């Protein structure tokens, strides 16, 4: 039998990939060959010749390869009967590794279940590169708005009252009380820190509690904690590291009914209005979820969900690193559907999402840096999902761009 006409090019590209010499175009070509059934025998021969777990390639991408392999086994039951065949398992694992999109030296990787490839490519009208993302607006009790950047430093320093604002160039603001005795008897003033789309910020509250705000989020809090309860309210998403004070519990209001009550702990709250559920993920300590008359306790490693449609609370065990990946500068799209993924993209890059011919089905398995430009993210999603993206607008200053999602 004559060799497939593309087999020689496949072998060259594959060897380049093993040596870490593939650029984006070469990786795209290699991924297209991974879907060609006529090249299955060539793939089998090449993959079987790869050294074991000691090879440089498997070492570099061991975690990603194993994660994709476990996902393949979970989503394709027919592979279960093959698990004892070591060489076949290794074949599947490295085939999955090829399907991972190793963009720009390891910026991220993606796998899409229920995918259908298309020959179209992302139509690019503009691009967005996240820069200077540490930005927010401080709204004082009297309604005064102060940008939390270099331009607002002088205005912030002139503020008078029980609170002292200490702003850092590295993206956070610290509250300190000038006089605890005065602060204890005065009615506290409420401030709000809000992040725009594409922004994030950190706040150190008067009690030392640290709060990280994700994009398009806000935190409202008193300039001094008095009485028997420390209470703040949040919209969007925030990660909390609460200073322990058994005599003054900490409470986070999410909406008119839902709240999270803690003593001292680390947890993440995601409460964007466009999402169906409010998620509270506990990393350390213990929290109580309260929604009207219902309350549930969370343990570390668990996520509690308030269902906005019926008000119920459900609890599941999760990978907590996924919930706080945003805080560490990463998009973690594991086990998320396209709607969830595109909502995150919309908020971070400040673009409108339009679905043409309905919303695609299937889930994403992928991670990528939040510093990645928009076009690279869309091309990575497209290459693995077969979904086509078109960008429109966004060229004029202040003009919001649009992404059309086409099946």
Q: Any overview of this molecule?
A:
- The protein is of the alpha+beta class and 407 residues long.
- The protein folds into three domains: 7-112, no CATH class; 137-323, Jelly Rolls, CATH 2.60.120; 330-406, Phage tail protein beta-alpha-beta fold.
- 26% of the residues lie in helices and 31% in strands.
- The protein is built from eleven helices and 24 strands.
- Helix 1 packs across helix 2 and helix 5 crosses helix 6.
- The protein starts with 6 loop residues before the first helix and ends with a strand.
Summarize the structure.
Helix content is 26%, strand content 31%. By secondary structure, it is an alpha+beta fold.
| Tally of strands | 24
- Which residues sit in consecutive blocks of at least 5 with pLDDT less than 50? 52-61, 71-107, 115-119
Describe the largest sheet.
17 strands, mixed
Average pLDDT confidence is 77
- Summing up helix and strand content along with how strands pair, one would put the structural category as alpha+beta
**Count of separate structural domains:** 3
Shape: elongated
Oligomer: single chain
CATH topology group of the largest domain: Jelly Rolls
* CATH class type of the largest domain: Mainly Beta
Instruction: Indicate the percent of residues in helices.
Output: 25-40%
CATH architecture of the largest domain: Sandwich
User: Count of helical segments?
Assistant: 11
Radius of gyration: 25 Å
- What separation lies between the terminal Cα atoms? 38 Å
Residue share in β-strands: 25-35%
């Amino acid at each position: 039998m004559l060799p497939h006409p593309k087999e020689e090019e496949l072998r060259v590209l594959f060897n380049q990939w093993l040596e870490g010499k593939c650029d984006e175009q070469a990786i795209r070509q290699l991924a297209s060959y991974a879907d060609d059934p006529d090249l299955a025998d060539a793939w089998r021969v090449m993959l079987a010749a790869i050294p074991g777990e000691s090879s440089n390639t498997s070492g570099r991408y061991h975690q990603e390869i194993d994660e994709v392999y476990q996902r393949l086994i979970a989503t394709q039951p027919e592979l279960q009967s093959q698990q004892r065949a070591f060489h076949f398992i290794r074949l599947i694992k490295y085939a999955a590794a090829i399907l991972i999109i190793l963009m720009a030296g390891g910026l991220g990787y993606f796998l899409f279940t229920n995918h259908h490839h298309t020959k179209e490519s992302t139509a690019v009208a503009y691009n967005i590169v996240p820069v200077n993302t540490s930005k927010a607006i401080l709204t004082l009790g009297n309604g005064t708005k102060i940008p939390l950047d270099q331009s607002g430093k002088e205005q912030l320093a002139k503020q008078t009252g029980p609170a002292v604002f200490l702003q850092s160039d590295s993206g956070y603001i610290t509250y300190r009380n000038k006089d605890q005795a005065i602060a204890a008897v005065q009615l506290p003033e409420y401030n709000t820190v809000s992040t725009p789309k594409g922004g994030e910020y950190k706040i150190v509250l008067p009690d030392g509690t640290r709060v990280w705000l994700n994009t398009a989020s806000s935190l409202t809090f008193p300039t001094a904690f008095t009485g028997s309860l420390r209470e703040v309210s949040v919209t969007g998403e925030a990660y909390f590291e609460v200073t322990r004070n058994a005599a003054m519990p900490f409470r986070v209001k999410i909406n008119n009914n839902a709240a999270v009550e803690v003593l001292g702990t680390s947890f993440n709250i995601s409460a964007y209005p466009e999402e169906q559920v409010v998620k509270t993920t506990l990393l350390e300590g213990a929290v109580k979820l309260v929604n009207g008359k219902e309350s549930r306790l969370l343990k570390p490693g668990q996520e509690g969900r308030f269902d906005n449609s019926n008000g119920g609370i459900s609890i599941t065990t999760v990978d907590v690193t996924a919930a706080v990946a945003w805080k560490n500068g990463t998009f973690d799209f594991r086990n998320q559907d396209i709607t969830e993924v595109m909502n995150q993209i919309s908020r971070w890059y400040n673009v409108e999402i339009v679905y043409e011919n309905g919303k695609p089905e299937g889930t994403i398995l992928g991670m990528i840096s939040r510093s990645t430009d928009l076009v690279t993210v869309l091309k990575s999603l497209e290459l693995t999902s077969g979904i086509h993206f078109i960008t429109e607008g966004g060229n004029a200053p202040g003009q919001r761009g649009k992404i059309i999602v086409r099946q």
